Amino acid sequence: MTKQSAKPAAKPSKGRGLTPQAEDFSAWYNDIVYRADLADLGPVRGSMVIKPYGYALWEHIQRNLDDMFKATGHENLYFPLLIPMSFFEREASHVEGFSPELAVVTHAGGKELEEPLVIRPTSETIVGEMYSKWIQSYRDLPLLYNQWCNVMRWELRTRPFLRTTEFLWQEGHTAHATADEALAETTQMVDIYADFSEQWGALPVFKGEKTPGERFAGAKLTYTIEAMMRDGKALQAGTSHYMGENFARAFDITFNDVNNNQAYVHTTSWGFSTRFIGGLIMGHGDDKGLIMPPLLAPHQVVLVPIYRATDDEARSRVLAEVDKLHAELKGLGVRIKVDDRPELSPGRKFNEWEQKGVPLRLEVGPNDLDEGVAQLADRLSGEKRAVKLANLVQTIPAELAAFHDALYARAKTFRDEHTADVSTLDEFKERIDAGYFVYATHCGDADSEKWLQETTKATARCVPFDGPSAEGTVCIHTGKASGYPRKVIFAKAY
Amino acid sequence: MTKQSAKPAAKPSKGRGLTPQAEDFSAWYNDIVYRADLADLGPVRGSMVIKPYGYALWEHIQRNLDDMFKATGHENLYFPLLIPMSFFEREASHVEGFSPELAVVTHAGGKELEEPLVIRPTSETIVGEMYSKWIQSYRDLPLLYNQWCNVMRWELRTRPFLRTTEFLWQEGHTAHATADEALAETTQMVDIYADFSEQWGALPVFKGEKTPGERFAGAKLTYTIEAMMRDGKALQAGTSHYMGENFARAFDITFNDVNNNQAYVHTTSWGFSTRFIGGLIMGHGDDKGLIMPPLLAPHQVVLVPIYRATDDEARSRVLAEVDKLHAELKGLGVRIKVDDRPELSPGRKFNEWEQKGVPLRLEVGPNDLDEGVAQLADRLSGEKRAVKLANLVQTIPAELAAFHDALYARAKTFRDEHTADVSTLDEFKERIDAGYFVYATHCGDADSEKWLQETTKATARCVPFDGPSAEGTVCIHTGKASGYPRKVIFAKAY
User: Fold this and answer.
1) What's the pTM?
2) How many Å apart are CA B314 and CA B304, to the nearest integer?
3) ipTM confidence
4) Which residues between 257 and 296 in chain B have a beta carbon less than 8 angstroms from any beta carbon of chain A?
């Protein structure tokens, strides 16, 4: 009856403290994912268990993003997990992009299957097959559908949340009568992703178009949101694709238009995944651990009662006040956690909730009660101050809103301070090496983009919709004319 | 540019009407699933696409059941889809039960895998592996976790919602220090399923224990809820299992108890799936189509404006009132759908929403406005009456509550009228043939249970917790003493 195995090797566990970010950002990330109990390694290489604290974050992301989808007329549905291998072959660039990463079911029910089935890496193909059946007339359009599901991409180098063989996401799939409508949808959805990241996640993003080399396999164009992590690297946090007629032609999705002519539909797809949790960790965290954006935080406030175990009178006074505060804050819709574990000291609790990034901590002890106050500690500023009990409860929602604003401002300032606009290749290299996002004019030439990546490790993240104009400038690498109306943002990326 | 394929063969599409239930219940079921747009067949045999109208029902089921789990202290998390084949072999009866139905990934990332990976048919094994790592001390217990996910069981005979190779469900997995605690959890969860079915789905259930032959593979005991469909057959709608130490021993899940002795945990699991949608369809539907339970209905009220296309004045008066009613009812939290499709006649709309089972229909036309009323039609009673506009909005929530009660009462009455308590094998056969649920004393002998099934097609559904006592009676088949304190319910089942 001894445990069969220790923790897997890949999981760091040296000592109690977190690796400082400046020492090794990557080690800090691994440390905090496991220490804050967001996830654990699964038994199969590249797989992950999302633990309750991480999953609660995902539930808040899901719920609020889903509300935004529904408010813009989308409905949820569910497509099958397994897709016939032959479906992938119908769209040439799609199969080229995805075939190296497919997981394949060859046997089921004790028999070899006639055709191998692929675990969806994304669902455009099976969606295309069904839309071809469902769409007959312009009256069936637009189809505005979304699904929340798991997908699988067999990656070699995996990291929790950022890149795992299986991940959770939503994938929207829409079909439209015209290119204009489909383009408007593509834009609307990248706008929703950007708004969600900023307004719910307190994480500012650059919103723009991917260069052709970075497009989704099968797309005519890809819009993206790109966030800066605390090490200056970029994280692609959501993408929205306009497919043109590519999938409609591959899957024969046609409709009779108002003039009774048969035409191909224009499709879009857009996805947002558990990767965003990695973005929240690396976009906000510090050497003490996570800092949760209040609107998505599993616990917005942690309330720690303080008393000596031997002092029954103090204990009952404190717990009575704690119960009252708990009930009142819950009544206001605040997600509050009372940490009344008797076996842990207040100090241990403070450390744990700091590491887990709970925005606000309330402490109530007998001395506080005598003075009619509670102590309110702010995870971001690290400050602690006494707040009168009389108006404490009403204060909290405003404190949470202020916390969100401060967290957003901190991320925005950090990003602004680490974003440069350059005109020469030397400047480009220097800033990339220093961990910056770099605006640079680029000719759009695929070979040049590849050379820049191989030489500097920086990739073209996007051409931001509202970035500086490229007018009057030339490519920092080739000296040719700009390939885009605006400058491209380059950065090292996750 | 012609469509590649017609609808798959299995999908009925003869004429416009539904097959009457009395003529062929099974054909009625297939008809309504597709006509009401709940689901479509997927491209792979045995797979299904859950369409928006069906998925919206699932979302309401999920949201409300999840609230009940959380209110009883459970947290959600997410385990990986793929499980090493070897895990299944650690619990003998578990592998025996599931191995014929497994779908197996043998290749991934372009290579053959060293060990085949199984798409989870259920997650006890991977949960066991992780719990063995997570649980060290009695302080870690109980673990009260649940996940919402897809699972796969390669069944040969499939039917939408009732039995598909892939389905959606939740699976709760808990670990406890003692058998008593685990048994209390097992009971609590079957109680929650029963309450949910009755209080949200308006579907009465028998709650009881499965006979040993019908237990979950690997369980010490299985509790179940069994609902009666409108053809008198039973549908198992949710199960809760007490595993004893079976999985703890197979996966070495041990803990140090309060006295610092190492002991095995006691585990439970409990599941509720998209199968329940099949139960709602067959438990409430009639020859006109679905009847949705109001608390889970995607649309609780449909509002149909009525006017002549040529009468602009009437149209604008009617639409103004419709907008007002829509906004007010939405404000009260009523899920209301306005059907203002100009291309369809009111009659077509009425038929469509009747078929889709929307509980209440409101009609507003110019004559109604002149009289200060709207017409309120009830899907269950089929009655329509004029309701004063002045107090219409306030009336609706009460109407919905009354609809729920009437729907529940109808199902309960039907079940009571089709449940018999028998003492002889002849009576047993007669009632089973007539489509009844039959209470009968049984010796508990596995061979006898099998003989009854082969001879009469009836299976032991459960020993209901509050069924008639078996005291003083003998087995209807063997004449031996009862194997259970109470009579067993037998029925033909889905």
Assistant:
1) 0.95
2) 14
3) 0.95
4) 262
